[in-house]
Amino acid sequence: MSPTKFKIKTNLVTGILMGLFSGFMLFVMPKQVRIPAYDSGAPSPRIIPGICLVVILLCSIILIIQSLVFKKEKIVEFDWNNEKPAILLIVLLCIYVFLIIKLGFIIASAITFVIILAYCGERKPFIYIFTIALAVGIYFLFSKVFHVSLPAGILPF
Amino acid sequence: MDFTMIAQAAVQTFTLYNIALIFGGLLIGMIIGCIPGLSVTLGIILMLPLTYNMEDAASAIILMLAVYVGGMYGGSISAITLNTPGTNSAIATTFDGYPLARKGKVKKALDVSLFASTFGGLFSALLLLLCAQIITKAVSKFTSVEYFALGVMGISLIAGVSGESLPKALISGMMGLLMACIGMDTVTGVSRYSFGSSILRYGIDILPAMIALIALMQVVDKLREFKISGGKIKDANKIDKDGMTGKEAKSIIPACLKSSGIASILGAMPGVGGGVAQFMCYNEVRRGSKHPEDFGKGSLEGIAAAESSNNAVVGSAMIPLLTLGIPGDGVTALLLGAFMLHGITPGPTMFTKQGVMAYTIILGCLVANIFLYPIGKALTRAVAKVIQVRYTYLACAIVMFCFAGAFAASGHYKELIITAAVLILSYILTLLDIDNTPLLLGMILEPIMEKYFVSASMAYDRDYSIFVRRPISLVILIITIIMVFSMMRVNRRVNKLNAEQEAAMAAEHAAGETAADDPALAADSAKKATEESFESAIAGAVFEREHVKNNPTEDCEDKTE
User: Fold this and answer.
1) Cβ contacts (< 8 Å) between A16 and chain B: which residues?
2) Which of B187-191, B204-208, B487-491 has the highest mean predicted lDDT (pLDDT)?
3) Tell me: the pLDDT tens digits for B355-399?
4) In angstroms, what separates the C-alpha of B12 from chain A's closest C-alpha?
5) Residue B78 contacts by C-beta under 8 Å, 6 or more apart in sequence?
6) Cα(B252)–Cα(B305) distance, rounded to whole angstroms?
7) Which residue among A45, A122, A138 sits closest to B192, beta carbon to beta carbon?
8) % of chain A beyond a pLDDT of 70
9) CA nearest A86 in B: which residue?
10) Does ipTM top 0.90?
11) A54 touches chain B (CB under 8 A)
């Protein structure tokens, strides 16, 4: 197996991750979900999240038992060559969010999508112009038609 | 039936504005539906920000229903011209649609598909109109206790059918419920799991979560595919001019009727989506056909069966949604989210308190199906060209629109951060082989479930045994348990077959294409068809096709009869 590929035992990993997650959430519940000082007759706000977390914990234990005891496993092969574009795109979209907040919607879109298009191998200038024009179009569509002001950032709109 | 309300609703439905929305919705639905990899759910999500400022919530829902109807037909366009289903509900359309297209009869295949889609859609919309009143009357005695039980049923069923592993599906559903719990509790005012963060203090809105879970994940997947394949586009079959004749239309009506009937029953059952219905209908129509040997080689009946089934699901899936407030599948879950964003809670109270609106929505669904035929006739050729547009043009537009739409949920930066965070979570879930449909459903159902839970608990002085002491609630919960376990058994059976047959199905489909000159392409497409089906559609496919294979005698018997 090449180093860029590895197998994920999804039942085991899910069981461990979700078990830890639900355990942690149950542990912090007394601090994170306080019982109201005044009893309005309503059920405790902890009931529904509590049930959810207990079910997650139970399912995690079942998954771990399935994997370790009954050897029932669903293996997903993580191929870096296949996953790299997806991870990069998700990272770019997170940067996009950061840029929207800092620089505004139009500039952020122009920067991010030029990078995405270049990454996808687009060479023709038209698609770049089209995309930037689209960002401006969507900005004004939201502000003028839907009356939602997208972040203008450093642009003086 | 309440004719006064229907008459009032008709006046509201047939406004120029609503008709324009239906036209637009159908067209957008057809375009999104025909692009492989983009689902109808994405189309509906993209419509949500557009509908924010609509004064009439019914118009907003009608627009989304039109997208749904258009999308279900749109999926067949690429199924026929490219042999790649545009949506997972159009997989069965490729079985006969593409072989017929390879014979040069593309227009005929598309016409049959459009006719069958319209037929199925109208059939189920009429059924919806008829059933809504009856079911609503039957459940009018339900109290918050029963509604909570129904909510439990809705979430359990989806968890039971989606994905191979019930624990994983349950984890996904519970994560959804938990995510919706974050933030201020509306009843007690207590902050839940906000960890002192201002972003989490007001909770996670459904819209950014829906956008990230469904829309952005699809775009990322599709862009990844684009990058890996180098942006190659398959050659589509050219659309000729020789359409369907009147005689042919008449010949496929029995198939349409049978398929619409079966799909309507299946669609009305929560937890069964269009993905599964199409295979069952295809199989049944094939069994009853006078020419079962033509199936898989370009049978008009085959196309009609597949296409009328997926459109019939649209109307019938609305039956449990509108009357009980239970979504049947991922798309109706989204529609439930849309209802809630517009401040409507579907269920019997909707028919009593907002009866005109309920009927306006139903009539809108009916009208959208009627208009599908002329719009499809006029615009299919143009829409088919969209498949040839480079995906990068669309992807950028969709991503920008998604983020702008997410921001519009409250006009606050936190929505963007939540969108990005849920996108990362969604990717991790994919790596862990966890389906995100139950998560979405959990998020959407939680506010409704909690509302009923709180009011039931308060009404019965926090006596939680009431949920099993009231007979109707108990019956609903028992049915839920029985259905979940029976579905698990079916799932296990299907999974077993799935493991053995997934490869065989691709090979079988490719073998059917050997007459065509490009077997590699066919194998690739068949493989794609298997991959593109999310939820349990493929499991259903394999199950059904295996059933056909194991029972060839049934076909022979039918022939001899």
Assistant:
1) none
2) B204-208
3) 888 888 889 999 999 999 999 988 888 888 887 777 888 888 889
4) 23
5) B34, B35, B36, B84, B85, B86, B90, B236, B384, B387
6) 9
7) A45
8) 97
9) B224
10) yes
11) no
Partner-chain contact B223 A89, CB within 8 Å: yes
* pLDDT for position B547: 39
Return the residue matching tokens 């919530």: B57
Helix, strand, or coil here: B183? strand
Which ranges in chain A belong to alpha helices (H)?
Answer: 10-32, 47-68, 80-103, 105-119, 125-140
Highest mean pLDDT among B243-252, B341-350, B538-547: B243-252
Q: CA–CA distance from A27 to each of A23, A30, A51, A53 (Å)?
A: 6, 7, 14, 10
- Examine the pLDDT at A91 and tell me if it is beyond 90: yes
Please give the C-alpha separations between residue B274 and each of B88, B331, B382, B428, B479, in angstroms, as whole numbers. 8, 10, 26, 27, 22
Q: Are B298 and B515 in contact (CB under 8 A)?
A: no
- Phi and psi at residue A60, to the nearest 5°: -65, -45
Mutation target for A interface from B164, B166, B174, B191: give the one with most A CBs within 10 A.
B174
Strands A75-79, B183-184: pairing kind:
unpaired
Residue B508 has what pLDDT?
Answer: 55
For residue A16 the two structure tokens come to 């461990």
pTM over 0.90, yes/no: no
Put simply, whether A1 touches B (Cβ < 8 Å) is: no
CA of A1 to nearest chain B CA: how many angstroms apart? 19
